Every structure is written in structure tokens, then in C-alpha cells.
Amino acid sequence: MSMFSVGMLATAQEVSVARFQGDRQCAVSLTFDDGVQEDYTLIAPHLDRYALKATFAINASVLGDLDDHYSPRMTWEECRSLVRSGHELSNHSWSHPHLTELGDDSLHMEIARNDSAIEKETGKRPVTFIYPYNAVDDRVRAATLEGRICNREYQFGLGQADSHQTRESIGQWLRQQIDEGSWGVTMTHGIYTAWDHWEEPWVLWDLFRELAYKSDTIWTETFAKVGAYVAERDAVRLDVVKKKGIITVTPSLDLDPVLFTEKLTLKVSGMPKPGTKAAKKVFGYRAVQDGKNLPLILKGDDLLCDFNPYGGPITIEPLKTDPLAGKTINIIGDSYVQNHRQPYENAWHYKVAAKHGMTYNNYGRNGGAIAFDRTNRNFGKALYVRYADMVDEADYVLVVAGHNDAYFVTQSKDSLAAFLEHLEDFYMGLRNKYPKAKIAVVSPWNVSYEGFPVVMRAIQEACERHGFPFLNAATTSGIEVENEEFRRQYFQHPSDRAHLNPQGHDLLVSWGEQFLISL
Question: In CATH, which of 2.40.50.140, 3.40.50.1110, 3.40.50.720, 3.40.640.10 is domain 328-518?
């Protein structure tokens, strides 16, 4: 774990690096061995359906062999397609031998030749290694770790012909990862061919679905990304000093910044809540690193922000003057903005604006979508067009949308392509219309229906490209959509999964307020 040298830090406050990105309880990396063609034709479409990214370990010597006695293998073009989709290719050696049985020259040839082939064909050199037959000793480990983030040395066999996994056994394993706060790494080969194939592949698809809809608890990412985060988390040193209410956190990390590129999540616990006796004159908190504001997210009682572990000191300071007072906020979106069958004055964003004396302009339309015109249902034009109707002047522009787009992106590949194109149009249009405003995006909360994971990932990636701060309600809001008792108490109707009642919106006032204040 991270080391801390702490000066003048109040015991009621604790500064740490979250165990996993976004302070989620556990992490899962899905890895697929041997480059069998079913990884591309059967597995990848289901991963993409749920916007999950995975790691595919390949042996270049047999790639493209459709007549292989073990299983038909992927082609290089299929591998390139996986990389373009955000998946990882890992080195599984050139020809899949027992590496522990090779001499030094043969060992290094197996590693280097596969690295070179993958880099030549895809433009990306592998940064992880997966051992054939799981065969490793100290000599092999040293040779394969050179210039890499991590190697796979433990795994959960995810198959049925040999591992005999069932829906129940997989569910038990996943619950164990959550309970123990572990990084679970799965190992799968093919579906109907190759080692440990499946009699019931729908059990695997159900796991993908569960991972997608538990994004508030489980961080599912490639082996390289989780491996980099874990290595950085365990190696980073934080020097923490508190003086006159300001916490200064100075990170230092002695890892290769070319390989280890993940931002870390800083977690600050025990900060006095604005308005309480301990922070009576505090309006909120702001975090700054290298001259840039870090969006501060309130998750439960903790403040979270993602930071550069190679960057300069992070200052977290209480704001004694109200940064929102007298400002203008334009908020645009769907029924999360118009508030469905209740007045928008009941919504959390209006309550935040009213609390701070902001000029508030609401451009919500029930049933509205980012990318799809719904005037034929009286739900109005798509947001990528409708944003032009907003007043030209604003200090803050807040987008809360995407719920309805998830229904449309599943209709066809053309629908998804249209969504991605118009999402880009929308964000570019907002930046051009409001060059001086602080533009931010808030996602819908986690809803278990088709299309939602794809829309969520697309919105987050678009925000990263455009530099828009992103408040992920699916992972931080605490809105328990699938909890019937929670819906009965906090939603407009027990069967509703989108629209909060006034008491539900009250749960989000501090959450949304802190995000806006930190921008």
C-alpha cells in the first residue's frame, strides 16, 4: 500500500489512494488465451454489447490459421479490429511452448518475436504477458517482465469442459472478489472449440451483463489498465500536510511514466461537511493540481478526485466565498432535467441553483435524446440540434442526458454510429457556443437495460476527448435503481427507474453541489 509522511494532519481526516479506480470495491479483468477465432466472432460482440474491454493473448506463429487442429485462429485484421475497439492484445509467446523448459536464447526469441509481430501488425507493442500453460519460474518471470506492466500469474478458469463452471460457481467467485476487495482475473479460451469450451455459453454472456450493470461496485477493465493502476497505487508515496484548513498532497512515483499511465483516485475521508458546525462558513471544496481544477466527487462521506501521480502537489482547500453565487447555469437534457411529472423546481439541480442564488435556465424535455429526433412523439428535437435554442450567455452549462438514447442504439449498427456522430456534434457545438463557460456532463444512474453500458462509455470517452468534467451517477450517486424499497421511498413511482421524487432529489443536492463548486 501507499506510504504516507503526514504533517499536522487532523486524525479525523484520512488521505489515501483508492484501492481501485473510482473507489470501487473490486476489479475484474477478462483474459482470453490463444487467439482463437471465436474470441473475435463470438466473444467480442458480446463484450462490445456491454461496453466491456478485455485482453486477448495471442501466438503470432499460428495467427490466421483457419485450419488449425486445435481451433481456427484470428486473422491480423481481426486483431487490429479488436485494438481499434479498445481491447488489449497481450503476448502469449510466439509458438506456445512450456517456457520453463527452454534455454535462454529460445526463451528470449519466443518473447521478442511475438512482441515484434504484434507491434508491426497493430502498431502497439504488448505491455503484458500471459504464460502458456501457466508455466513460470523466476528466470521466465524476469525475462517476460522486462518492459512490461505485469504478467498473469493467477487466474480463474472460466469454462465448462475442464473447469466445470456453472452460473452458481461463477456467481460465488464474483461475490468473493467483491467481499475481499480483490482483482479477479479470468481465463477463457474458445466457446465451442479449444480448451475448456462451453456447453452453455449463455452463462458467460450473463457474467458480462452482470459486470456491466455492477459498474458502481466492480471496475472491469483490461489486464494492462488494472495492472498499471495497482502497480502505481502500491508504489506511489503521498506526503500529506494540513495547514490552515488546506490539505496539500504531494505524490511521488518512481515507475516508468511511458508504461504506467493510469490516473489514480485520491480519497479524502472525514472532511467536515459544508453547513455543519465544523464547517459553518465553508461552501465546498476545490482540488487543484498543476494549475488545473480536479473535479471533486462526493461519494457517500468521502471526497474523490483523479490525479496524476507524476504531477505536482494537490491542494484541497475549503472555499470561504461562494463560487456559484450570482452565476448563470443552463441545464439541458431529458426528463432528468424536466423532472417528468413533477415540477423541475423539485430537482436537485434547481435546488442547488436556488441555494446559491444562481440564474437557472432549464432546457429539459421529457423523452428527449442526445442524438435522435423525437418530435413525432412530442418529445422534441435531439439535443445536438436543440442546444442552439439556449441563451447565449452562461457561466455553467450542465448536460444531463443519455437515458433515452440507450433505447435507440440497440436497434442497429447504424443507430449506434448515428449516436456516436451526433454526440460528437453536440459536444463540439456546446464548446463553440460557450467558449468561456464551464461545461460539464452528468450521466444517468445505473439502469439495467440494453444499450445503457454502450451509451455510458461513449459519453465518458467523449467527455475525456473534449475536456468536459464528468459526474458518473452510475457509480457515485448512490441511487439504488434495482432496490424496490428504495424506489418506493425515493422515486416518483415504485415501478419507475428514472425519475426521483423530491425526497430522492434531496439525496443528490450535496453530491451535485460539490461537483459544480469544484469546477
Answer: 3.40.50.1110
For the chain, the structural domain boundaries read 3-17+239-319, 25-214, 328-518
CA 446, CA 443: separation in Å to the nearest integer?
9
Q: How far apart are CA 483 and CA 472, in angstroms?
A: 19
Do the Cβ atoms of 336 and 364 come closer than 8 Å? yes
Edge-to-edge strand ranges of the sheet holding 297-299: 14-17, 264-269, 302-307, 297-299
**Burial of 75 by CB count in 10 Å (0-12 exposed, 13-18 middle, 19+ buried)?**
middle
Query: DSSP string covering 126-188, please?
Result: --EEE-GGG---HHHHHHHHTT-SEEE---EE--SSSS---HHHHHHHHHHHHHHT-EEEEEE
What's the pTM?
0.94
Give phi and psi for 209, each to the nearest 5: -60, -45
Q: Does domain 25-214 have CATH number 3.30.70.20?
A: no
Confidence of residue 12 (pLDDT cuts 50, 70, 90): low
10 Å Cβ neighbour count for 53? 20
Q: Average pLDDT for residues 462-472, to the nearest whole number?
A: 97
Looking at residue 317, its amino acid is E
pLDDT single digits (tens) 157-192: 999 999 999 999 999 999 999 999 999 999 999 999
Instruction: Say how many Å lie between the first and final Cα of the chain, rounded.
Output: 30
Q: Are 450 and 406 in contact (CB under 8 A)?
A: yes
Q: Which residues contact 186 (CB under 8 A, 6 or more apart)?
A: 28, 29, 30, 31, 155, 156, 157, 158
Which stretch of DSSP H or E encloses residue 284? strand 284-289
User: Contact 158/122 with Cβ under 8 angstroms?
Assistant: no
Bridge partners (DSSP) of residue 284 are 319
CB 400 within 8 A of CB 436: no
Q: Round the CA-based radius of gyration of the chain to a whole number and report it.
A: 24
- What gap in Å lies between CA 447 and CA 497, rounded to an integer? 7
Residue 93 DSSP code: -
Given a cut of 50, is residue 7 above it in pLDDT? no
Identity of the amino acid at 502? P
Beta bridge partners of 186: 30, 156
- Cα angle: 213, vertex 428, 285; to 5 degrees: 65
Q: Which residues pair with 241 in a beta bridge?
A: 7, 248
